[in-house]
């Protein structure tokens, strides 16, 4: 969008290592590149460091070693405002994300924090809400919405910032099947790079042509999602299990571009 | 859970009172109460007139009287206190229904009752004609420190969420056969309270992360601002000005 | 304790408002320091202010926890006022802000506490409780051995004293600006006497709650932060949570007895105070005491049980306490209940101690 040097990938993580102040090391040299417009699933067992990685993408955690670049821009203190505009993180619990009194204000929060006002701001809000099909709920307080609706609004709050890359933390958790599908439709319709952290393997397969497995603080595998899911040994080694009765081989996908 | 139950304090409607800007209403309610409190208690008629004024506003706002009266119950504990006064306050004694009561005590009771009731009624009218969100905007407009308004708005936003969590914890406790009957169970209840605190605090940390992720750098962007025209101010001023007139009459008569 | 309009005269209400505004202004500055960071969050401090979301959530917590009923006996129940708890958990400045916001919202939304009396309410319930509780708490921690038990015990005393202190503050304000001349000695006796009893409940709940938090996330207890960080420094590295969970058992037993004595002495002193006044003005006291006691109870129910729904009023039927001995009985009850509760708590605590952490987790 604001990037003239087009070839820069949306996300470039190299050699990222991080230890929490209490000494617990979560990341041991992560390398990951996500190209423009790609949809990538980030899989991994609990405690693999997925959330830690996500918090590095917009500079909430400071890399101990290694670098993160978003569309070519390194994640550093002086770039933080721009980085946070470019990286939209949708957190797992929409109640954490929707902290303003009304949906509209919540969606406006990001763009307003970056200085947008008036009609332009209003336009952004409407546009983002339209993208997730929630425009008629603009003036409702978030806690009056259903869980699925809240999750959609949470996506809108991030879309309103016109991010380079959308990072979703467990987007399908706690959703009923209908909301799950609706969210999938929304995500597919967006023209934006997506990195999706999830345990929901069928969902990953449905939405993301490519998947990476983060295990014990490193990227352990990086391949087509279907191939990964079909590799039983790999899956078992990283505590990833498919739901009962689900066979990734039986699914035919019309893989889009890429 | 947590979805769907609208606030019972606010009565949705479209009336001239509902449509006034919130800060005008807050200011008007506050001034009205100040005037009421400053009225000499001997001017019994003045309080009657105040009540009439509030009644007029209620009718204007199309708030059912029953709704208002029910909310007045909040005052009951102090009514008990007021009823006590005639028996406790020393001074000139008189006889009412065969009971010996003190005159200053009676006046004191009357004073507390009348002023307290009018104050509660004014607040109730304010809360039932103004949405929560607008109340906060109004307070912000009235130059309450922004941080305080933010804290209040987070409190309102998460009050339901946390109350819900508390309710779920209580259901979980009872589902496992726990019944709080007396002091012996306080330990368990307090542990729930402790857990609730930790959850709240950790949620606060997560909310902060979510805010920072969207570019928060210490101050909330002003997205909505309420404004009031001169006429709106004038309309809101009707109540306190009339009250002031009554009050002044009360002092002079 | 929410004071309505017309209870305190206009000038004093205004003065209280000014005091409250000043204290809030100071707290606004102080809160920024207090919410600087806990052990887990320091890394996330890359910008932005934590005060608003954290204080907001804590205020919501206080608001919610005031609705948590603690059954006493025979259908009556009490609940937490929360000033002391807030001060100990998040620090005095944030505590003042949180309680102030709760009071502000109660006043505007629920008409609980008059608009003109907001200043009085903030001074009495927001500032007095938190400041007294926190000062006592820090003072005791300074004297006591640095263990988790001391923190719990100090919370008990702090909360115990904070409630009658608030009653005292109210009496003082009433003395200066009360609209009716009730003999101030009576008001004081009744208020403080009743609130010593309430304070015991508050103290038990506060101490247990602080104990529960400290067992799981000691870093979140503001008042005990010195405690955890000093423990952390010694290890500094591999073992993650171990330092915070050291029970330090042998020291605890001794310190606990010390606290028990301190608490008992405090209760006795306060009770003695009551009895002095009680014998000074026997006439009419028992009624004030009795009715205010009821008053307290009903008010607390009405005020917070279900602020969003029906303001039901219960427990008002109890008007039978009569006879001139109310004061004396009150004193006796204070001591007996106080020491009894102390005893029970102590026993429970010692039983719970070894598996306290896991239990807290279970009850979540």
From TrEMBL, chain A:
ABC transporter domain mapped to chain residues: 11-241
Molecular function per GO: ATP binding; ATP hydrolysis activity; ATPase-coupled transmembrane transporter activity
Membrane topology value: Peripheral membrane protein
Superkingdom: Bacteria
Task performed by this protein: Part of an ABC transporter complex. Responsible for energy coupling to the transport system. Probably part of an ABC transporter complex. Responsible for energy coupling to the transport system.
Family to which the UniProt record says this protein belongs: Belongs to the ABC transporter superfamily.
Alphabetized InterPro entries for the sequence: AAA+_ATPase, ABC_transporter-like_ATP-bd, ABC_transporter-like_CS, ABC_transpr_CbiO/EcfA_su, Co_trans_ATP-bd, ECF_ABC_transporter_ATP-bd, P-loop_NTPase
Protein name in the entry: ABC transporter ATP-binding protein
A cellular component annotation (GO) from this entry: ATP-binding cassette (ABC) transporter complex
Subcellular localization(s) per the UniProt record: Cell membrane
Matching NCBIfam families: cbiO (TIGR01166)
Keyword set, alphabetical order: ATP-binding, Cell membrane, Membrane, Nucleotide-binding, Translocase, Transport
UniProt organism field: Streptomyces atratus
UniProt GO BP: cobalt ion transport
Automatic annotation (TrEMBL), chain B:
Membrane topology of this protein: Multi-pass membrane protein
GO cellular component terms listed in the entry, alphabetical order: ATP-binding cassette (ABC) transporter complex
Annotated transmembrane regions: 44-65, 72-89, 109-127, 233-251
Domain of life per record: Bacteria
Compartments, as annotated in UniProt: Cell membrane
The entry's keywords: Cell membrane, Membrane, Transmembrane, Transmembrane helix
GO BP annotation list: cobalt ion transport
InterPro entries according to UniProt: ABC/ECF_trnsptr_transmembrane, ECF_CbiQ, ECF_transporter_component
Main location: membrane
UniProt KW Chaperone keyword: no
NCBIfam families: ECF_T_CbiQ (TIGR02454)
Designated name of the protein: Cobalt/nickel transport system permease protein
Organism the protein comes from: Streptomyces atratus
UniProtKB/TrEMBL annotation, chain C:
Segments traversing the membrane: 12-31, 51-72, 84-109, 115-141, 153-176, 188-216, 259-278, 321-345
Membrane topology, record value: Multi-pass membrane protein
InterPro entries assigned: CbiM/NikMN, PDGLE_dom
GO cellular component entries: plasma membrane
Keyword Phosphoprotein tagged: no
Gene3D superfamilies associated with the record: 1.10.1760.20
PDGLE domain residues: 258-347
UniProt keyword annotations, A-Z: Cell membrane, Membrane, Transmembrane, Transmembrane helix, Transport
Main location: membrane
Domain of life: Bacteria
Gene Ontology biological process terms from the UniProt entry: transition metal ion transport
PANTHER family for the chain: METAL TRANSPORT PROTEIN HI_1621-RELATED
The protein's name: Cobalt/nickel transport system permease protein
Organism: Streptomyces atratus
